Amino acid sequence: MSTEDQAFDGNGAGGDIKGVLAEEQLTLVRDEIRFELQLLHERVNALLAAEAFLTIAYTAAMSNGAAWGHAFAAVAVPVLAILGLLLALLASPGVAATARILLVQTALQQQLFERIHGSMTVGFYAVPGRSSAVTDQRLSLIFSRAVPLLFSTVWTALLVLTLILLT
């Protein structure tokens, strides 16, 4: 078994070559976590921005008091609601996949950290009664994971409301 294989087999510990390789792997995992978090934030921010503009257009179309406003609303408002729903549904798999990757990478980071430092956990998670890094990461992802579902639900409700009000 090569030293690289030994470093990644889960038996490596602190200062020898196995520990050095585990530390390098930990650095790579942390970089991957940073990249995935940035990607997740960009996806959620893009969705929020698009949904905000659609919401403004939807509200303006619904409150149009001009003589032609009812005909315009009858066409534009359902289209805007369907577009908002589609955007949320299309964003959902990417957000969910990124969240899964983050949870896996966080668990791997925790394993590598324990491998390097032994069973003793240091820093924030060393305090008795603290949750694990994976649990904290899962909790921090609640908002990002909920945004597409929330907008899907809201746009579905608005579409139904629109169809009821305009018919």
Characterization of this structure:
- The protein is mainly alpha-helical and 167 residues long.
- The protein has one domain.
- The chain has five helices and no strands.
- Helix 3 packs antiparallel against helix 4.
- The longest helix is centred in the middle third of the chain and has 49 residues.
- The N terminus is likely disordered.
How would you summarize what this structure contains?
The protein has 167 residues and is mainly alpha-helical. The protein has five helices and no strands. The longest helix is centred in the middle third of the chain and has 49 residues, at 69-117.
Main attributes?
single chain; 167 residues; mainly alpha; 0% strand; elongated; disordered N terminus
Provide the helix percentage.
over 70%
What about the largest sheet? none
Task: Count the domains.
Answer: 1
The coarse silhouette is elongated
Structural class: mainly alpha
Question: Helix and strand string, N-terminal first?
Answer: HHHHH
Q: What is the number of helical segments per DSSP (H or I, 4+ residues)?
A: 5
pLDDT < 50 stretches? 1-17
Rg for CA atoms? 24 Å
Could you give the count of β-strands? 0
Please state the average pLDDT score.
84
- What is the beta-strand fraction? under 5%
The N- to C-terminal Cα distance equals 73 Å
